[in-house]
Design a protein that fits this description.
Blueprint (H helix, E strand, L loop, with lengths): L2 E5 L3 H12 L3 E6 L4 H6 L8 E3 L11 E4 L3 H10 L6 E4 L15 E6 L16 E5 L2 H12 L5 E3 L2 H31 L8 H13 L9 H4 L2 H10 L4 H19 L3
Parallel strand pairs: 1-2, 1-4, 2-3, 4-5, 5-6, 7-8
Antiparallel strand pairs: 6-7
Helix pairs in contact: 8-9
Bound molecules: NADP nicotinamide-adenine-dinucleotide phosphate (NAP).
The site of NADP nicotinamide-adenine-dinucleotide phosphate has 24 residues, from α1 and α3.
């Protein structure tokens, strides 16, 4: 089992600290810029874990230093923290490994899942994308990831960046579209509940077939009258109308070669 320091006690840092501790690793220290989130984490970790708001107070060890701060802060934290004997890895999908250049033993420990502090994470289902500058460090990171999940992948910087864009489409945009559906229901006095079996079936179908094969709806059918009716219904919400048009055009292009 490894010695681990977590840098950043946000959504990801909190979940990782608890899960890695439960998996038997030694959480040596947790750093966070401000104390509030450290206090929230303290009850879940053993008395041996140290907590700090100062990067210069990081304890040296041969294990893993996991940077789980906001994307924009990863480079600054990596640069400001002292040189350490262990592997320095970050959890960002969008940030290249090169921002860790100060650390010869550097790597990536990217969990391709959505994390919210109060929401339970089933780590055994989380895919981990691992990379490292040195082959034996990649093996070290893979071994740690395997204590949380069997879904561990060797993924390069370039592959991870594309995966991250795909994840934005698959999760962030899908969720935003569901929020719009909820809003349309609310503003028109219809229960969103009625849509839930449809939402569940949409995701279930993609487990069995490529999403491209299971598309339905007016844009797929090139049903121009229905599309015009929907656009008219959205005339008081020009932002939603614009999104509807854009997505219908994209579906039209995929199936009919023209928007
Ligand atoms: N959430 C997800 O679903 C998810 C999934 C996969 C990967 N990731 C990646 O994991 C990383 C952390 O994401 P998160 O969702 O845990 O973020 P978060 O909940 O918003 O927490 C951000 C963390 O970054 C710290 N921070 C922000 N600016 C900083 C700075 N200038 N210097 C030092 N610390 C700073 C914050 O400290 P304070 O508490 O002091 O503000 C906080 O600990 C990101 O790289 C993200 O891309 C996130």
């Amino acid at each position: 089992m490894a010695s681990i320091t977590i840098l950043g006690a946000g959504n990801v840092g909190q979940h990782f600290a608890k899960a890695l501790h439960q998996a038997g690793h030694q959480i040596v220290q947790v750093y966070n810029r401000t104390p509030r989130r450290l206090q929230a984490l303290m009850p879940y970790l053993p008395p041996t874990t140290q907590f700090t708001t100062h990067l210069q107070q990081l304890l040296p060890h041969n294990g893993l230093y996991l940077i789980a701060v906001a994307d924009d802060a990863v480079a600054a934290v990596a640069q400001t923290m002292p040189a350490v004997p262990g592997v320095v890895a970050h959890t960002s999908g969008a940030t290249p490994m090169s921002v860790l250049v100060k650390h010869p033993r550097r790597g990536i420990f990217y969990p391709l899942q959505t994390f919210t502090a109060a929401h339970t994470v089933h780590f055994e289902q989380v895919p981990f994308c691992i990379d490292a500058a040195l082959p034996h460090d990649a093996e070290f990171l893979q071994a740690i990831a395997q204590t949380l999940s069997p879904r561990v992948y060797a993924i390069t910087d370039e592959q991870r960046r594309i995966l991250h864009v795909a994840a934005v489409f698959a999760n962030n945009f899908t969720n935003h579209l569901l929020a719009i559906a909820d809003d349309l229901c609310k503003t028109n006095g219809v229960p969103f509940e009625i849509l839930k079996p449809l939402i569940a079936e949409t995701l279930k179908k993609t487990e069995q077939q490529p999403p491209r094969n299971v598309q339905t709806g007016p844009a797929k059918r090139a049903d121009a009258q229905t599309i015009a009716q929907h656009l008219a219904l959205l005339q008081n919400q020009p932002h939603y109308q614009q999104l509807y048009r854009l997505l219908s055009e994209s579906i039209g292009k995929m199936y009919h070669g023209n928007p």
